Structures are given as C-alpha cells and as structure tokens.
Amino acid sequence: MSIKISHLTHVYNEGTAFEKVALNDVNVEIQTGEFIGLIGHTGSGKSTLIQHLNGIISPTQGEILLDNENIHKDKAKLKEVRRRIGLAFQYPEYQLFEMTVYKDVAFGPTNLGWTKEQIHEGVVAALDIVGISPELYEKSPFELSGGQKRRVAIAGVLAMNPEVLILDEPTAGLDPKGRDEILAAIRKLHEERGITVILVSHSMEDVAKLVDRIIVMHRGQVAMTGTPREIFSHPMELEKMGLAAPQVSYVFAQLKERGYDVPTDVYTVEEAKEALLKLVKQVKA
Amino acid sequence: MIRDITIGQYYPAESPIHRMDARLKLTITFIFIVTLFFVNTFIGYLFVIASMGLVIKASKVPLKFMLKGLKSIMIIILFTAFINLFMTRGETVLMKVGIFSITMEGVLLAIKMCVRLVLLIIGSSILTLTTTPIQLTDAIEYILKPFKKIGVPAHEIAMMMTIALRFIPTLLDETDKIMKAQQARGADFDTGNLIQKAKALIPILVPLFISAFRRAEELAMAMEARCYHGDEHRTRMNMMKMKGSDYRAAGILVVYAVVIVGLRFVAKAVPFII
Which of B12, B178, B184 minimises the CB distance to A94? Predict the structure, then answer.
C-alpha cells in the first residue's frame, strides 16, 4: 500500500496568539514494504506528520493519499484507515488500561468488531512477535517491566494487523536490553510480514542499522531524503539542523584526517569492524 | 474539542489589563461578581455589558477566546433558563403546557438569569486569561494573609492552587495524547448511546489517573529534594506593588459599583424602566 503526502500544511491554533506552523508544504511518497527512518530535531514536525497519516489530525491544507484515495474523503472509512496504518505513539505504555495484558492487546481488534477467533488470533500473533510469552497474558500490564509494558503496548497496535506500522521513538527511555528487544521485534516484523515501517527516532545508530531510506525533517519541511549512506555523508548539514551522523562515522572522519586510508561512508558498527580489520591488516603488511 | 476549555488558561498579550496588579484584579473580579447580584434591570445589564466590553477591548484578548469558556457550561445555562421559564409564577400567562405555564415574568427572569450566568463566567475568564496562574495565587495568598491568625493555611492553599492550575494544561495535553492513542487503536468516542459513550471513557480515564498520580508523586519528590518546607521565611522573586494606574483602576471600580447600586435604587423609585 503506497502513501502519498502532497502539499501538506498544518497550523496549530490558527488565528490565535498560540498559532504555530508545524508543517509547511510537505511532499513525501512511501512505497509498499519500505523501511523508513524519520529523523529531525525536536519540534521539526515529525510527530505532526505521522499523526496525519492515519487521520488522527486533519490537514490545514493539502492531502494524504492512501492507494491514491484521500483518507478524509469518507469519514466512515477512517476506522479502516487506522487499522491499515498502525500508529504507536511515544511512550505507548501510558495508554495501557485493561485488567490483563491479553485484554489490553484485544482492545483494538474488539473496536474493529472482529469475531472472538479473529481477535484471539490477532492478539496471540502480536504478542508472539514482540516476544511476550503466554504466561504473562493474564497478568496486569502494570506489573510488567518498562520494556515489557512498551512491547505490550506496541502489540496492541500490531494486533489490528496493520499494513503500515508507524513507531514514534519506540526506544526512548529504555535500557539497552529493552531497546534491543524492541528493535529486534520491529526488524522481524518488517522481514517476516513484509509490512511497511516508519520509524521516528533520535538515535542515528538505530536508524543507520535498520532503515532503507531516511527522511529528514527540519522546521516543518522535508530537508533531505535518501539512503542512510547518502544522508550520513552530509554530517555538517545534519549538525546545522541539530542532528548528527552516527558516532562511528565521526571516528572514521578523524582517522581519515590523521592520514589513515579508510572509507568515510562507514555508519554502522558492523561496517566499522570490517573496515578497521582491513586497516589493521594493511598497517601490519 | 478538549482544548476548548479556557478556564485557568492564560492568554499572553501586552495590555493595561495584563499589567494590572493581580491583587487588584482579583478584588475587581470579586466586586464585579457581588455587584452583579444587585443588577435587576435591563438598563443595569446593558451598563454591565458595556463596561465589560470596554475591559475586553482593553485586554486585547480576542472575544472568541472569552466565549470559548461558555461552551463547556452551555448545559448549565440552558438548564437554568428552562427551570426559570417553567417554574416562575406570574400574572401574564403566555402559554400553558400541562401543569406548567410560561409567564411573561418567567421569560424575563430566564433571560436575566442567563445573562447573569454568562457575565459571571466571562468576568472570571477575563481574570484568568489576563493573569498568569503564579500572579493569581500570589494574590490569593496575599488576600488570605489576615486569616492566617485564625488558622487558615494561606500559603498552603495558594501552593495547592498553583499546582492545580499548573497541571490543568498538562493534564489536558495528556488527555489529548491518550485519546489519540486510543483512537489509533480504533476507539470511538463520538457515536453510540449514553452507556456506550460512558464506557468509551474508561480507556481514557484509567491511563489519565495513573499518570496524574505518577506526576503528583514525582512532584512531591522533587519538592522534597529541594528542601521545600512551605511558608516560613520564604522570600519572593516578584514583589507585588500597586502602581499609579492601579489606583486609577480602583477609582473606576468605585464609580462602577456606585452606578450599579444607584441603578437599583433608581429602579425602585421608577419601576417602569424594568
């Protein structure tokens, strides 16, 4: 399913002292099966943009086309749009409210009016993919650890079987183990179910490791778009926008500066390892 | 939607009303509310509305913002109108519906009561829209000070109000966020009968309460970590001081109150001006 955002503008509190242009003529196209990284400084419009994609907020101007159809054309279809485009907000664990993990994950599918069997199937599949084992199903979600809570909350979105999954900072405030578990689940989802993923993140390392294409937002506009390699080869421009390239790319820039023969477009730890081993061999020889 | 609630929301602008001493503003609002109950003629209401119009104009807050606060109490206003319309006994019966009858007196009283309610709400909205919560609670603390001798914990009351006011926008934002998150999971708050609508609130209220308790706990901890211990020996960053313009405003207030009370006596002497 392709998403096309054309000339999207959004103004908060229009006509008051609090007026703020959050998005200004944004044009983006997202193809089926893509893994997109959405990066940008705080207040660059990322959150506003993703909330438009499933019709939670309406554009001030412009439109969002889902398979070439404006999502706001038919209000009755909005629920179906929200099923097809799953959106997990920042700190999604704050939305948990049910007595048990199972019931909470079943909230979405139940709202869609699915049958009991369909709901059960969706819930179990979703909890399985985020790595929540069946013995936790009947526990209160509030007894779980931070990382588990967040995975349950994300499962609550996944249970509706979305074709596109949007995650707003899914790893914010988690410890390294919790972060790795979430990222592993997201990668698995993308690879096994082939669903389109849009990952909003402040961690350039996470983005570099996972995504196919990066969209850089700056002051309510799309500043750059391209593969991680293309985007991270402009560290100066990223820094001007309050962002940065992954840390390893700075290490390699320094090495190059000191006269070592290394590539400068290294941006993941794995690539760095390969490049450094090669360098060590060269130096020894 | 949820952002329509303006009570306790400051509207930043540069105006004489904004600059006025908060203690004076609080006193004016109080006197405005008390004198409003003296008004019993349409001429009196016209005078109040005109004065209020001038103040709103001077405050530079868009009228739209002032009126937004009314939306949330529309039901109370309608209910008041309804009760007055049917329950007032009078001589000139206009219409009879079963055991109820609508009288001329009832219609007039209903209109007056609604206008009074609307004026009350707008009057207090002017105060909260033009005064920051901090200034407001400082003023309340100052005014309550004399009652400390009889055991009124003025500082604590002011502190609790500061905190409560401070968290209104935060909790509104939080509610908004939770609503969006549940909507993303297919929750529907707008359709269905009353019971379904009430049930739809559970997914909002449970997370909201949890987050309110968490915030309260965190705040208490942060205050304790900074050795907060209340009233004794605390100094202020901003001292409140009455300026020349404040005295002039107080003068206008006296004139206003005299006119209101005067109109009441005039109305007694000359009853035909309703």
Answer: B178
The reply to whether CATH 3.20.20.370 applies to domain A3-245 is no
For residue range B146-176, what is the model confidence (pLDDT) as tens digits?
888 888 888 888 888 888 877 887 888 899 9
Element (H, E) at A64: strand A61-66
Write down the ipTM of this complex: 0.86
* Number of domains forming the structure of chain B: 2
Residues B168 and B215 placed together within one structural domain of the fold? yes
**Which run of H or of E encompasses A250?**
helix A247-257
Sign of the CA dihedral running A206, A212, A214, A215: negative
Distances (CA, A) of A188 to A1, A126, A194, B105: 19, 12, 9, 74
pLDDT of residue B125: 87
Query: Quick check: A8 and A26 in contact, CB under 8 A?
Result: yes
Q: Which residue from A83, A89, A157 is facing B177, i.e. has the nearest CB?
A: A89
Name the residue of chain B whose CA is nearest to A156's CA.
Answer: B185
Interface size A-B, in CB pairs within 8 Å, comes to: 64
pLDDT score, position A271: 87
Q: What is the mean pLDDT of residues A161-165?
A: 93
Looking at the fold, whether B176 and B57 belong to one and the same domain comes out as no
Q: Does residue B171 share a domain with residue B153?
A: yes
Chain B CB within 8 Å of residue A56 CB: yes
Q: Which of residues 139-198 of A touch B (CB under 8 A)?
A: 142, 156-157, 160
Same domain, yes or no: B127 and B173 = no
DSSP string, A95-147: G--SSSHHHHHHHHHHHTT--HHHHHHHHHHHHHHTT--GGGTTS-GGGS-HH
Q: From B175, which residue of chain A is nearest by alpha-carbon distance? A: A95
Distance from CA of B51 to the nearest CA of A (A): 24
**Encoded amino acid at A4, one letter:** K
Residues of chain B with C-beta less than 8 angstroms from the C-beta of A79:
186, 188
CA distances A186 to A21, A49, A76, B110, Å, are 32, 21, 30, 62
Per DSSP bridges, beta strands A20-30 and A61-66 are unpaired
Minimum-distance CB partner of B184 among A16, A112, A157: A157
| pTM over cut 0.90 | no
Task: Please check whether residue A87 touches B, CB under 8 A.
Answer: yes
Interface test with A, best of B4, B185, B205 (most A CBs within 10 A): B185
In terms of domains, do B202 and B167 share one? yes
For residue B68, is it within any domain?
Answer: yes
**Portions of chain A given CATH number 3.40.50.300:** 3-245
| B165 and B29 both lie in a single domain | no
Model confidence pLDDT, tens digit, residues A9-36: 999 888 777 788 999 999 999 999 999 9
Residue B173 domain boundaries: 149-240
pLDDT bucket at B271, cuts 50 / 70 / 90: low
pLDDT, one tens digit per residue, over B88-117 is: 777 777 777 777 778 888 888 888 889 999
